Amino acid sequence: MAKAGMLENLINSPVAGKLGVPQGEELRRYAPGQPALDGPAVICGSGRYAADLEGLLAQDYEFISANADTPRAAIVLDATGIGRPEDLHELFDALNPQMRKLRPCARVVVLGITPELLTGPENTDARICQRALEGFTRSLAKELRRGATAQLVYLAPGTELSQAESTLRFLLSGKSAFVDGQVIRVGGAAAPAPESWDKPLVGRLAVVTGSARGIGKTMAEVLARDGASVICVDVPAAGEALTQTANSVKGTALTLDVTDPRAATVIAEHAKARYGRKIDVLVHNAGVTRDKLLVNMDEKMWAMVQNINLVAPVRITEGLIESGQLAENPAIIGVSSIAGIAGNRGQTNYATTKAGMIGLVDSLKDAFAERGGTINAVAPGFIETAMTAAMPTLPREVGRKSCSLKQGGQTIDVAETVAYLAAPSSRAVTGNVIRVCGQSIMGA
After folding, report:
1. The whole model's pTM is what?
2. pLDDT above 80 for 390
3. What PANTHER family does its record include (predicted)?
4. Are 125 and 88 in contact (CB under 8 A)?
5. Active-site pick, 49, 61, 154, 350
């Protein structure tokens, strides 16, 4: 154990850095009472939103001229006006002069128009150009250093900037510290701003499965921090830890095997009995791994992962919808994984279920949008948990270094993304899969 610790310290030492071993910057994460950014922001571009960006965010953000020499903590490039291939030069013209002025952990956000919604021959050039933004932004994210990130926000044609405010605030803050190289699509649904951006979930009742410990526990804590009442769900064997989590967030504990055919009914009855209301937010976090090459896997290992990770979320969601126990404008968030996007050796069972979670989002997004609800997924990469801490040193370090940010994420990073998607102010964001992986080399 001591040798493993010494090896880990060596890999993450300044000496190793000088020898070319990638070293991650300490990321600036959200802290209540602290500014969203630790410096000013710059707005670039000639799109339709550029003129309104500063006014939308002026209360909590400082803006300076793009020509200023002051180091900047964020750049927002409005590329929505790029409509001809010749105009893509604007990307270079706008951002090339800015790159050496970025502070550590800076945020770069590019705004575009959702290309697949630009239909008709008259929009051919615009669709080409807007699709090109994805290659630009993902590549830029891989070039940035010292904890800086880059994201692309696609807005549906005709969308008002206010409908993207929650997304901009999330990306232009420490809440998105481990989200990098992502594409988020914002639709046209009404997305009311909260009374306080510090408490965007006030009045919401949330259910988090698998919340006794780990990522689920942190999700419960962050949802409660943001104002939600939380029902913490986990298996009876985790009862003591579950009670501690529930007490810490001033929520309630519900011991339940999510594979129970009556799980949806039990959850709804608990919500009614303890809170007298329907469920606003449902987070499908409960999950297990039983890794083995398919040739060596037994049926029990396959069935356990399938039933907990995917069958249960699907049936619970269906049960709550059919019984009418979801409140108006509900938010459902499923926990997928980069393994479900890229696949992973020895995880055919797990990756199947995590890709299936993305399928759940795809299959329900239109129906949910019609009723004012949202359904999205988060796909964590290498996150520092008790499970990853038990890994052998070298595989663990490979997992940490195999992303643009050159480190593992924290459970808070996944929880912050879930809280962003759970808020009524994010009602225009649905059908998305947001990877929380520091732009892992696995997957898109």
Report:
1. 0.94
2. no
3. 3-OXOACYL-[ACYL-CARRIER-PROTEIN] REDUCTASE [NADH], SHORT-CHAIN DEHYDROGENASES/REDUCTASES FAMILY MEMBER
4. no
5. 350
